[in-house]
Design a protein that fits this description.
Radius of gyration: 21 Å
Shape: globular
Number of helices: 11
CATH architecture of the largest domain: 3-Layer(aba) Sandwich
Structural class: alpha+beta
Mean pLDDT: 89
Largest sheet: 11 strands, antiparallel
Length: 379
């Protein structure tokens, strides 16, 4: 990957951040954590499109009045960029290994803690530029921080990966709008999976957490990533429809769903193909598969014949599956599962194998924890 790509990317972001109305009256320290292997950088046609959007937003920001307060790259980003092989790009840190994004966020938290007595206290903006894996790592580290420290942070997730279901917008321009327009800070919840013994987990997700067929698709996509050209997730959706029942036994699963008050709202005990729970409704996974197309945040699919799987799988692109007899949807804050056989779970694209000893398993919404940017609603 040419260095110029990241220089252009970071330089445009620096101009946009310098004019951002975010945290007016406070110093704004920004850091972009980018995965250099993300498709938004490495696929030529995508980068060309992203570069044009960045140039347009930077050009508009350059003509605006500068914000009421300085906007500078974080000290953490500047220290990370002092090595001979580091990109000389303002505020940009390129990840080099799994877990790097989380380590960078923890360093930013340390930096913020060291400046906590400053008046006015600085505000830290974390921008992730990668796929779902990069944003997952960053949010996990942010979630672990003390709430008082998190109150001086916000995270913006740019859609620069091949999988961008956890990004703040499908298109780059929609995400950059959150830097150029008046916004508010909201605290988003996470999803937490707990096993009965505690030997595995707990595990967190910030978009969708699910058990069953789709976790198998995610697992195989991750395992074979780089070996198949094109959309390997779509390929494994097709393969899984044929193979899943042969690899994993689909037996009776007891599922109970509860609302915020602890009241049971759903009880099933039958063969289930998958159960997916989102932080909210209207969420996608697998590169825009509309598993939760409306306000309901839980979707359960009953086991079905191979012919039925093949005939319904295309409906996940449009959300048309919700009207079929195999689908059960509801709004819940907690799910509980009991199961006798091994099964996979996935958390924003990361998977874990659950066995009989891990059950009962629960998936629940956490308290609001992740500070994200939201546009101000128009009166």
């Amino acid at each position: 990957m040419k260095t110029e790509v990241f220089e252009d990317f970071a330089s445009a972001l620096a101009v946009i951040c310098a004019a951002s109305p975010l945290a007016q009256g406070r110093p704004l320290f920004w850091t972009c954590i980018a995965n250099p292997r993300a498709g938004g950088f490495t696929i030529g046609s995508r980068w060309k499109k992203h570069r044009a959007v960045l140039e347009r937003y930077a050009g508009e920001a350059g003509g605006k009045k500068r914000r009421g307060g300085e906007a500078l790259p974080s000290d953490t980003s500047q220290r990370r960029n002092r090595g001979p092989s580091s990109p000389k790009s303002p505020g940009l840190i390129l990840t080099s290994r799994p877990g790097d994004a989380g380590d960078i966020v923890r360093a930013l938290l340390d930096e913020a803690a060291s400046l906590s007595s400053s008046v006015p206290s600085p505000f830290f903006l974390i921008i992730t530029a990668g796929g779902d894996g990069t944003s997952l790592e960053a949010q996990l580290a942010l979630y672990e921080a003390h709430s008082a420290l998190r109150s001086n942070f916000a995270i913006l997730r740019l859609p620069m990966g091949t999988g961008n279901d956890g990004a703040d917008a499908w298109e780059l321009g929609g995400a950059l709008d959150l830097l150029t327009e008046e916004v508010t800070i909201e605290y988003s919840r996470a999803l937490r999976l707990r096993t009965s013994t505690g030997g595995k987990g707990p595990f967190l997700a910030f978009n969708i957490l699910s058990i069953g067929l789709d976790a198998f698709v995610t697992h195989m996509t991750n395992k074979m990533k780089g070996r198949f050209p094109g959309d390997s997730y779509k390929l494994w959706v097709d393969i899984a429809a044929l193979l899943y029942d042969r690899v994993y036994k689909v037996g009776p699963m007891a599922l109970n769903a509860y609302d915020e008050g602890g009241n049971e709202i759903l009880s099933l005990n039958e063969a289930l193909l998958l159960a997916a729970m989102g932080v909210t409704g209207k969420r996608t996974y697998g590169s825009r598969k509309m598993i939760l197309p409306d306000a309901r945040n839980v979707c359960v699919l009953r086991q079905m014949s191979l012919f039925r799987k093949l005939s319904l799988k295309g409906l996940f692109n449009t959300g048309g599956h919700v009207d079929k007899k195999e689908a059960v949807l509801c709004n819940a804050s907690r799910l509980e599962f009991r199961y006798e056989y091994p099964v996979l779970a996935q958390m924003d694209g990361e998977t874990v194998r659950l066995t009989k000893e891990d059950f009962p398993v629960s998936i629940e919404l956490t308290e609001p924890a992740i500070p994200v940017l939201r546009k101000l609603s128009k009166a």
